[in-house]
Amino acid sequence: MGSADGLPGPTDAWVTLAGLARETSRIRLGTLMTAGTFRLPGVLAIQVAQVDRMSGGRVELDLGAGWFEEEHKAYGIPFPAERMARLEEQLAVITGLWATEAGATFDYAGSHYQVENSPALPKPLQAKVPVLIGGHGARRTPRLAARYADEFNMPFGSIADSERQFGRVREAAEEAGRCSPWRPSPIRTRPRRCSPSSPRRAPRPG
C-alpha cells in the first residue's frame, strides 16, 4: 500500500493490546481507531471485555466506521457503502451487551446485525468502558457521539473545521441532555451528563 515497504508489517490491534495489558500496569489502552469493518460487534465486545479484565480495567473502545479502502482490499476485508449505518448498529450491540445485567439475555434486530438470546458475556471489569467516536460527518457523527461517546476525536482537520465539528457535537450533546465541558484542545472533548448542579457553559475558544 503506497510507496512504503510496510515492514515489518501490520499487527492486530487487540492482540497487541492484550499483550500490553499483561506487560503494563498504569497506562490506558485503546486504538485510534478500531475500524468497525474489521470485526463483528459481538466478537469485538468479547475481545474488548477480555482485554479490559487482563489490564485490570484500563481499556477504552475507540470505534470508527472504517475509511482506508486500500487496506481493506489488501487483506480481503469487505468495504461496504453503508459503513455509518453499520457503525451505529455496532455501537448499539456492543454497549447493549455490556449493559445487560448478569443472568439476563440480550437481543437486537437491526438491518445489518441481529443478536438473539445472547448471554451477553463476558463483562468488562470497568462498570463503563469509555467509548470514543470521531469523524467529520456534520449530522450522523455528532448524533452518535452525543448518544454513545465519552470522548470525541477530530482527525485530519484544520483548526477551523475542528471548531465547527466540535460545535456540532456540543449542540447534539446538549440536545441529548448532556453537557460538554470545554478543554483547551482542538482534538478531544469529553461530554458529561447535565444536572441541576452542573450548569451549561458557553464554549470558550481554545
Read across the widest sheet, the strand sequence of neighbours is 1-2-5-6-8
Number of helices: 6
Strand count = 9
Order of helices and strands: HEHEHHEEEHEHEEE
Helix content: 25-40%
> What is the C-alpha radius of gyration, as a whole number of Å?
18 Å
How would a crystallographer describe the biggest sheet? 5 strands, mixed
Shape: globular
Assembly classification: single chain
Straight-line N-to-C gap: 36 Å
**What integer is the average pLDDT?**
88
Task: Tell me about this structure.
By secondary structure, the protein is of the alpha/beta class. Helices cover 36% and strands 14% of the residues. It has helices at residues 13-23, 41-55, 69-74, 83-99, 140-148, 159-175; strands at 34-35, 61-64, 106-109, 114-118, 131-134, 151-153, 178-179, 188-189, 192-193. The strands form three sheets. The chain has a five-stranded mixed beta sheet, with helices on one face. The longest helix is centred in the middle third of the chain and has 17 residues, at 83-99.
